[in-house]
């Protein structure tokens, strides 16, 4: 009984839902005076009810990448842990590599829009072959595309003329038995077929044929991206004001690959690339590199390192603005001094023309011979002199 003499009632309330079990708690709450009596007080408390947890859904199988990649090992470990134990796996011999399905084949619907988006927001193969070649190279290394996927790449990213040129250059560089490009038509058709081959990628010969096709395709992209020799285009590649020496060296190497038949990474062409890097660098970096002793013995990496020292000591935008403001003030001061000097000369000339005397006083004009020639003596003077 409470102080007012009113009876209290039990009202079941669900307070918390706790994991891994749901607990149903019953508490006593005093009922207000106006609350009608719902049920009498039970003789003994109700027991706690424990609800069993919901069974976990089966683990969702995710698209597994290549088993050799770190991401594949991580996902496989999580999947095995979720399933509650280690599953038995079938070991394959080294001579028979397993078939890894292509990501492009599985997720073709998601890769197509990405390729079209890249083509829309980037220059074409004719304008910048290096960028497109790098993209296709990364796809060949990471996604391991099949023959059909390679055709999709060429169809989306290249136009008809560019695609024919790439295929022609690739068929010229199909490796033969000794590793050199072969000239046999049957070997060319076997290594780089133009129609869909019947390669079985689950066997070693099929997988090896696919690898040869990818290598020839990559060589064909590089060969088709080369343009006629034009050293003037290479000389126009100069270092920009806010461009680092490493980025400038990369652009210069790409220019040599596109506009010249030279291989800039070959040892016999290192001196040509080094001289172009020094001559076309920024003025402060060029002066520093030209003053180095034994510059002929420097490698390209060492030249870039020396250029980085000068580049890192360049003035900040705030320092540059302060320097330009100071130079502007000095130029204005020089102009003012020159004007003052000219005004001083003009005033000195005016003073010399006026001569000595008071300022503003009129000088008396001297009498000339005409004044005396018009004067005659009086008549009385002449009579006196005659008498």
Automatic annotation (TrEMBL):
It comes from the Eukaryota. GO terms for biological process: virion assembly. Pfam families: Gag_p30. Residues 115-313 form the Core shell protein Gag P30 domain. This is Core shell protein Gag P30 domain-containing protein. PANTHER family: GAG_P30 DOMAIN-CONTAINING PROTEIN.
